[in-house]
Amino acid sequence: MQTIHTAAPQEKDPSDARLESLIARLAQGETAAMGPIYDMTSSAVYAYALTLLKHSFDAEDVLHDCYLRLYEAAGSYRSMGKPMAYLMTITRNLCLDRLKERDRQTELSEEAWEHLLRVEDVPDNLQAAEWLQVLKEEEQQIVVLHALTGWKHREIAAFLKLPLATVLSKYARAMKKLRNVIAERNETI
Asked: How many whole angstroms separate alpha carbon 38 and alpha carbon 97?
């Protein structure tokens, strides 16, 4: 006799269920649903955009555009169980568009960039962004997606189209680098 094994259904994350419900309400024209969607997801969307673009103003623009795109496309959204992945895909596509646009524009001189980056009071989120700069781009994406969206490593692997083992090792290396940077900064204070 042959035994057939089926995977146990995965429990749905309550925040995913709430987010899907809010997107469905938005699709029905209930614009008040946009506020809670923004509150639940904006920090993750911004952080992911910042890791891809490396520029806070561009990341803020993408954050804004992401919610405009969601508002416009809410009616065509089809639930696949991971609404945050839908938002991250919108964010990634907007970032790629922004990077293509940036390639067509003239670069600022080194002196102009240094002038723009001089800030007296650096808020905590900018400090964290500065710490992330010690990481390679792929490591930044993995850390941000794991820490701010709460995605599991296998979800990140699927999203970034990387093997799970690669995601796990890059995450471990990135966290070690961040711990070292933070420890060094605390010693100098």
From this structure: 22
Could you read off the pLDDT of 168-188 as tens digits, one per residue?
A: 999 999 888 888 887 777 766
Residue 35 buriedness (CB in 10 A; 0-12 / 13-18 / 19+): exposed
Tens digit of pLDDT for each residue in 110-139? Answer: 554 444 344 333 344 545 666 777 888 888
Q: What's the rounded Cα separation, in Å, for the pair 132 and 146?
A: 14
Tokens at 148, concatenated: 């701010």
Angstrom distance (rounded) from CA 185 to CA 189: 6
DSSP string, 24-81: HHHHTT-GGGHHHHHHHHHHHHHHHHHHHH--HHHHHHHHHHHHHHHHHHGGG----S
List of domains in the chain: 14-105 (1.10.1740.10), 124-189 (1.10.10.10)
